[in-house]
Each structure stands twice: as C-alpha cells, then as structure tokens.
Write a structure and sequence with these properties.
Distance between the termini of chain B: 80 Å
Radius of gyration of chain A: 21 Å
Structural class of chain A: alpha+beta
CATH topology of chain A: Ribosomal Protein S5, domain 2
CATH superfamily of the largest domain in chain B: GHMP Kinase, N-terminal domain
Radius of gyration of chain B: 28 Å
Oligomer: heterodimer
Helix content of chain A: 25-40%
Strand content of chain B: 15-25%
Number of strands of chain A: 15
Number of helices of chain A: 5
Shape of chain A: globular
Chain lengths: 296, 331
C-alpha cells in the first residue's frame, strides 16, 4: 500500500514493541486506533458513510437501481462494489497505480458478501423473477494510512445501514411486465438489516506475534497477513471469506492463532459498530449535534 | 427448431459436455441429485489422477503441462526482465505478475470468463509470492502465464501446481516445492477436488438452498445455518508452511479447520507426485546432455582426423583423395 521508508533500526524497534504488547502509539496487539464514523452525509446517494481510522479516510456512497434478477436465484437482489483509490490518498495512486489495490479490495469485498447467509439478498427482491434492487456501493479512498481492508468494510457496513430504499408499489400486470411505482416521499422507505453483514479484519504477523489494525509503518515490517471476513449470526462468529496477503508464508498453527484472533476481534467490532450506529440514529431533534461532517 | 443433444464422450472419464449446466433452480436440484454424494467425512484423501510434465515447449525456458482429472492447464515462465513501470521500482523485492487465459473452448459459460481470469490472476500471484526467492531479482519482474485448456474444477490449485513445476524448470530459485488442492462443502457433503459441476452448483446457487431450507423448517427453530463454502490451500510441506489459503462461502471456524486439514493431507500426496516428475525430468535432461556430449565428442574426433590427414598429405593430395568418383558418369 502506501510506501513508507523504514530503516532497519526502526523496524527492529517496531518488532520489539510488538513483542512486548506495547506498540509505537501505546496500543496493545488487540487495540484499534480511534475511529470516527458518520452516516448520511451525501444527499444524492441512497446511503452514505464516512469513516476515519486515524490516518485512513474512506467515503462510501450507495446508489440504487432496479434490475432483473439472475434466473438461478430469482428472489435475490444484486450488489456491485467499486473502489476508487484517488491520487489524493498517496502519490503512488496516480494514474493507474491504484488500480491493482482497488481490484484487490473489490475482490475481497465481493468474496465476503457473496453468501446469502452473510447478506440477505431477499430483502432486495421486488417481484421474484422479474424485478429486484441493485445496489452500487462506491468506495472512495481519500487517505491511506494502513489497514485499508478493515476501514473499507466498516464504512460499507455503516453505509448499508444508512441506506433507505424507497417504497415500491406495483401497478397493473401489463402483459407479464409489472409497472412499478416508486414513492416520492423521502421518509417512506425500507431499511436493510445489517446484523449478519460481514466485516473484514486484517491480522498481521510481525515477528512471532499477530496483531490487528496495523499502521502503515507496521505493515511495512510484516511478512504476511491474513484478511478474515467475520459475520455474526445468532451470537456466533462465522467466516465468510478469507485470504492471505503480504508475500510471505505462515505455519498452520500460526494460521489458527491468527484466525481465532481475527474472529474474536471481528465479533467485538460488529457489536460496537451496531451500538454506535444505533446511537447515531437516536441523535435526532434537539439531540442533533452541530455540524461535524467535512462535507456539510 | 434446432435441438442440441448432450453427448457423452467416452474419452473424458465420464464427464459430459454441456453448454450451460444449470439454467433454473430445478436444474440445480436435479444436478445435485445426480451427483455421487461423498458424505460428511470423506474416507480417501487423495488427489485426482494426475499427468504432469515439465518442459513441454521449445520457445520458453520454463513450461509445464498438467492434467488433473479432466482439468488441463499449461503454465509458462520466462526469466525475469526489467520492470516497465517506474513507480513500482521502489520495492525492495522482485515483482511477480500472473496472467491467466482461458482457451475459447475451455468452459461453457463464457460471460464470466474475463472476471474469472482477473480473479485467478491475482490469487495466483498471491500464492506464488511466498514461494519464489524474490530477493534474487530486485527491480525485475517475473511474468507467469497460464493457459487453461479445459475447466473441470480446481482451477486455482491446478494452476499453482503447474506454475510451481514451471518455475523449477525455468531455473528460478524457490524456497520449497509448492502444492495446492481444493475442498468444498455443500449441504453437509464434503467434496474433495470438486468437479466443475459441483463448483458451479456452489457458485451459481450460492447456498440459496440454505435459506430456502431454513424456511421449510419451523419458524421458531434457530438451528445452525447451512454452511457452504470452498477452500483452496497452497502449502510448502518441508516446514508445514501455508503459502496461500483462500476461502469463500460461509463456514464456521470448526468446518474451516476441518477442510484445511483435508487439503493439507492431499497436498502431501501431491508433493510425492511432483518430486517424481521433477526427478524424472532431471534424469531425462541428464541423459540428453550426455548424448549431446558424446555426439559433439564424435564430431570433434572426426575433425581432428581430417586435420591430421591434411597435415600428412598436403593440400593437393588431400583434395584428390577426398574427391569421389561420380558413379553415373561413364568413363
């Protein structure tokens, strides 16, 4: 990702910090950096969210469209991801430099959201076999400070929670094709349930220890990391996708440790995100905060 | 109206040639019924019948051809060359680029081919990065091209195996031999080395039955969800290292580890096959070298003889003695 120049001494310093469970900024191996989350800031999108994870800044916008469902899965809607690594994030993303990273993120997200047990596609169905919602999830990377997978999935999940699908009523069945009437009322909408929607957790291996939420410097020190997609269902954590990245290899037992760490962290992240989103929803009327968002 | 009948080709181990395997959910159900269900715990953890040959092309230095059951894959590796893109040169290790191409006749479903090619390419480079000694070709890039001639499932793992052999054939330093295999679970049945039919059921139907099944059961029961998923593992077995472990679907951690162990066991048997193939190739190459040396020694000897005769007889006599009479000219 972002290119950070580190000397051998700096790398050794980071390595020793990780061994003693006290990283450069004082975190333990299981701690995340402070996050700021805001939803509903883009007025033209059906749903939006902005997440700031220390130096990483992600903006997600969701657009909706009516489409024909796949004949093999007539009751399922569709999701399409698009990631744009803008040149603002780091100079390497200039021109076509960011396209590889963007492709990798899209594949990771598509893999995580593929299973209907992770994201209930039936909520996107309008008329089985004929019409369904298609959501275009556009992710914009504004600043790259390490740990992109986690930030992108958190922002996407928050944006999905914020998405308001307009209420649709069907009018007469005209020669087999139904005419749909979409409500104009902005408050007449349905929301998506995001309980089982997965979150990506990057578990990074530095030296002999695994840690989560690596900063850009820590990413430069690690040999291998595993990205795990954790989805909660009935209080249990499930894996909805995983792959290794980083250019190194790991032992089978190390992998099991990383997996367990990723699952427990993913579980906590899911619970916390749900809590925070609920808190944000309740801040209406007199409890509404003064303008905080950078786009307002 | 033109009707196309599905033909059963006796050469292909009972696989049928079909255009679009599943077009309706009912087809998926029928397809599932027609499969031989291996059950929850498969007994035999062995790879499919494999044919593997290193060194099949004369145009590139490293090439390999692999047939894994009905899946046919060819890989070529050229020696590293200088990197084109200036921005990527800041890396402290060599860069690996993988390009995967499907032959036009490789698979029935042509719409998803470009996407699958991209996906396979990126997964393949992720899998091969830990295997190759990238510190040996700093600021250079290594291009690996894979051609898929027939798709009958397990494409990623077959491609990894084939590329591993092609890398050794090309002479590129690797840390260890890499082997890969695939396992999947669908409706409580574990399929090892899934065929295209099984993979497509998993991919196309996407466990759609999982939700339908839970609707049929009573609404209050909150039983375990129908797990479904596919896992591909590439490992380097000398020190039990995993080069890549890719999973898709929806699995509980217990099932994940179970499938992981199955693939690691298959990898161990595949490793024996690869070692045999590479040793046979080295022996064959050695014999070719010996033969070539013998032939060149013979040539050297002949030339030495001619030079010696020339020295002895002098130029004119030598020319006279080497001219043979034309048998068709009458004297």
């Amino acid at each position: 990702m972002a290119y950070v120049a580190l000397s051998e001494a700096e790398k050794t310093f980071i390595l020793h910090g990780v061994e003693e469970d006290f990283r450069c900024d004082g975190r333990s191996r299981r701690d995340y950096r402070p996050m700021e989350l805001e939803t509903g800031l883009v007025s033209n999108a059906s749903g939006s969210a902005r997440l700031r994870l220390a130096n990483t800044d992600i903006l997600v916008g969701i657009k909706t469209e009516i489409d024909v469902p796949d004949p093999l899965t007539p009751e399922f809607g569709k999701l399409e991801f698009f990631v744009d690594c803008s040149a603002n994030a780091t100079p390497e993303f200039e021109g076509r430099g960011g396209s590889d990273l963007a492709q990798e993120l899209v594949l990771a997200l598509e893999n995580a959201y593929e299973s209907p047990l992770a994201f209930d596609y039936r909520t996107l169905c309008l008329i089985p076999g004929q019409q369904c919602w298609k959501l275009y999830i556009d992710i914009l990377i504004l600043e790259c400070g390490g740990n992109l997978h986690d930030a992108v999935s958190l922002a996407a999940k928050a944006a999905l929670h914020n998405t308001k699908l307009p209420q649709v009523t069907a009018s007469l069945l005209d020669a087999g094709v139904t005419d749909l009437i979409i409500s104009d009322n902005p408050y007449d909408c349905t929301r998506l349930t995001i309980d089982t929607v997965p979150l990506l957790v990057t578990v990074c291996k530095i030296g002999d220890y695994c840690l989560v939420d690596p900063s850009a410097e820590e990413e430069a020190c690690s040999t291998v990391s595993i990205v795990v997609s954790v989805s909660m269902r009935n209080g249990e954590a499930f894996l909805s996708g995983s792959h290794m990245t980083g250019g190194g290899a790991m032992h089978r037992d190390t992998m099991r440790n990383c997996l367990n760490l990723g699952l427990s962290i993913g579980e906590q992240l899911n619970t916390l995100l749900a809590k925070v989103l609920k808190q944000e929803e309740e801040r209406v009327g007199p409890k509404r905060p003064k303008t905080v968002g950078f786009l307002k | 109206m033109l009707r196309v009948t599905q033909t059963k080709n006796a050469l292909l181990d009972g696989a049928t040639i079909a255009e679009d395997l599943y077009t309706t959910p009912k087809d998926c159900e029928e397809g599932f019924e027609s499969l031989e269900l291996p059950g929850k715990n498969p007994k035999k953890l062995s790879p499919r019948s494999t044919f593997l040959r290193a060194g099949v092309l004369t145009t590139v230095r490293g090439s390999a051809y692999m047939e894994y059951g009905n899946t046919k894959v060819m890989a070529i590796v050229a020696p590293p060359h200088e990197m084109m893109r200036a921005t990527a040169r800041r890396m402290n290790m060599g860069v690996i680029n993988c390009f995967v191409n499907f032959a036009a006749f490789a698979t029935g479903e042509l719409e998803s081919v470009p996407e699958r090619e991209k996906h396979l390419g990126s997964m393949l480079s992720k899998a091969l990065e830990p295997v190759v000694c990238r510190t040996e070709f700093l600021n250079f890039q290594l291009d690996i091209r894979v051609l898929i001639l027939d798709d009958d499932g397990c494409l990623l793992s077959t491609a990894i195996n084939c590329c591993g052999v092609a890398l050794v054939e090309c002479g590129i330093s690797t840390y260890d031999l890499v082997t890969a295999s695939t396992a999947c679970i669908y409706r409580d049945n574990v399929f090892l080395n899934p065929t295209a039919k099984e993979e497509e059921l998993l991919r196309k139907h996407r466990g759609g039955h999982a939700l339908a099944g839970s609707e049929n059961s009573s609404s209050t029961s909150t039983g375990a969800p129908q797990e479904h998923g596919l896992i591909t593992t590439a490992s380097m077995d000398t020190f039990d290292q995993l080069a890549q472990c890719q999973q898709c679907g929806y699995l509980s951690p217990g099932t994940y580890v179970k499938l992981l162990d199955y693939t690691l066991a298959i990898n161990k048997s595949l490793r024996q096959i690869i070692r045999r193939v590479l040793t046979a190739r080295i022996k064959e190459q050695h014999e070719l070298d010996v033969r070539e040396k013998a032939e060149s020694a013979l040539e050297d000897q002949r030339l030495a003889e001619i030079i010696e005769r020339l020295g002895r007889q002098g130029l004119d006599e030598f020319i006279q003695s080497t001219i043979k009479e034309d048998p068709f000219v009458k004297r």
